[in-house]
Design brief:
mainly beta; four-stranded antiparallel sheet; 51% strand
Length: 112
């Protein structure tokens, strides 16, 4: 059974940082394309960042230069380092594997 478990969300002030983690089990993680998505209230879910099995990354324009996606294949874990957070980054963040499997989501709230 494939499981993706996110952690690391929470409240943070504008300009602050958070690191999200997504631990994967039940599948061969090393060859999987991993992504982070987010969904704000009343909006569609959007792709934030993606990382290939080889470590190539891509980001949506609104987070370029602020967010960094990375993976640790030894730990079957993908990370999203979020710096210089803005109120518009407030959303539920979801981990995705291969455009098929989803985590349960973790809430990120950026507010003063």
């Amino acid at each position: 059974q494939v499981q993706l478990v996110e952690s690391g969300g929470g409240p943070v002030q504008p300009g602050g940082s958070l690191r999200l983690s997504c631990a994967v089990s039940g599948i061969f993680f090393r060859l999987s394309v991993m992504g982070w998505y987010r969904q704000a209230p009343g909006k569609q879910r959007e792709l934030v960042a993606v990382i290939s099995s080889g470590g190539n990354t891509n980001y949506t324009d609104s987070v370029k230069g602020r967010f960094t996606i990375s993976r640790d294949n030894a730990k079957n874990t993908v990370y999203l380092q979020m710096n210089s957070l803005k109120p518009e980054d407030t959303a539920v963040y979801y981990c995705n594997l291969g455009m098929k499997y989803w985590g349960q989501g973790t809430q990120v709230t950026v507010s003063s």
